[in-house]
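JOB MANIFEST
job_type = single_chain_structure
chain_count = 1
residues = 573
[input]
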Amino acid sequence: MFEILNPLFADKDITQSSHGATFDGAAVAKYRPDETGRPQVPNGILACTIEMLHLLDENRRRYGLKYTTKADYGFTYDDAAVGKQVEIHRMNVVAQYLHYDLVYGWSEYLKHKPRIIEAGLEELWHMEAALTTVLADMRCRGVRMDTDRLEQLRAELSVLVAERERKFYAAAGRKVNLNSPMQMQALLYKPKSQGGAGITGWKLTDGGRKRVDAGETPDHSFWSTDDESLDSSRGNPIVDALMEYRETSKVYGTYVIGYLGDPDAPKSKPKPNRVFDGKVYPDFYQYGAATGRFSCREPNLQNVPSPATELGKMVRDMFIPDPGYGMIVSDYGQIELVLLAHFIGHGAMWDGFLNGIDPHTLTAAMALDLDPRALQELVNAEDREAKKKRQLYGKSINFATVYGAGIKKLASMMGCSYEQAKKFKATYDRNTPEIGEFRAQVLREARRHSMRKTGMPPHTTTIMGRVRRVPGLLSADDGLRMYSERQAFNSKIQGSSADLTKLAMVRYHEMREPDWDLLLTVHDELVIQAPLDKIDSAKACLIEAMTGPGIQKYVNLPLKVDVHVVDRWSHAK
């Protein structure tokens, strides 16, 4: 069959539409090996109709073809989930399922293509379509694991998880079910007089929001217990112990058991071994986050802990290049702050980048009323106190600026009182008024969009025109409106960073040699491998892909990358 189809798959001018083209592109590739046996992804444009729909409505809850078919055409099919296990169904049943998949999948392409052109998203869509080919190729390649180290980690982390679970119970003063939201809500949010930690909740669960909308008065059961909602309460012994346990448990479950599998897992929730011939094959999805950032499944590498942490190093230590290959790790230097300065176009951070002052050092100087150049010189001279200021004040305030963290969170990151954090932030705001003015401008323009009779809700756009719709900006609910403001501002910066990273991946894939593989991407970081005798050429190619004229044209400040050639991922930082 593929002898007949290969001329179509090899034609660079043919567009191939698929609802989930990364998966289908890789599925086709395994039947199209080149002369060395490596799978070849189809050469034409891989048009993923899920990504097309995501560009047009990034807030949609479900993108599966059966859901969109029912919602858009009022037609329901495949109630028996034939597609998940075609081999147990009769041929005519499978044929009917396939027919509907093809008809409605093709209808999605015909429907969304003109909408994308009308919305002015054609350039962005072409980039995302090219990226689909890159992701399908990555899915075929996989990444090698140090399986001996993985087995060692299984033993080490199982002990550490149990140890941190006991530590949490000690901090809580009693045993609770860590997987029960109700018990955790009671422990965290009930007053101390009732046996709780007395933490003030701020983020409603979905059910809690519905109850508030219905007029109910919030109690402890209304508040979320996820990591984001608890992050501002770090410093509380119970919260600290819980977060420490969760991080360890997540690493153990996601990156150890998630790879090696668990033969004792229940049949309803199987955990198969995902290491095949020493490799894992993580699935990257370009439509995973509303901001345009990737999501990743089996395992989710977007949640790898920071390389500055013990657990982050443990996870990265397992990833290695193929024999005879070297690994190259490159990430953009302070890209979100570069983009912030780019959008503003003037001010302290803009001047700092042009004059070679580290942005965290600059921010610390602005918060402490110091001379940025003098503080930079001390940091360069390895002055411990200056480096501490850069870390505590610079990194913390820059995080708060980009992600919209409040004073409580800022105080926790700085390790100071609420009043002290408030004072430092006020000094910083006074010295950098352009940042607050720009944020207000972004929100003002986002709200104004909905007043132009475009039929669209309030929204902001990224550096390549990606749209982030934030209807909550018009909400009368103070909490929802403030949360939406953080979303809108963060999406402009974070979404623009995602645009550049995706474009860099496409550029690298188009410039590379056939045996230079793109292995991983985590936020603004790219990991590749190349034969040892070609490592310098591959490194130069990666730098060009991430900073060359074709990508630099989008940013008015110089793009810089940190590049390391290593023999395992953990050695890059």
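[summary]
The chain has a mean pLDDT of 92.
The chain has 23 helices and 13 strands.
exit_status = 0
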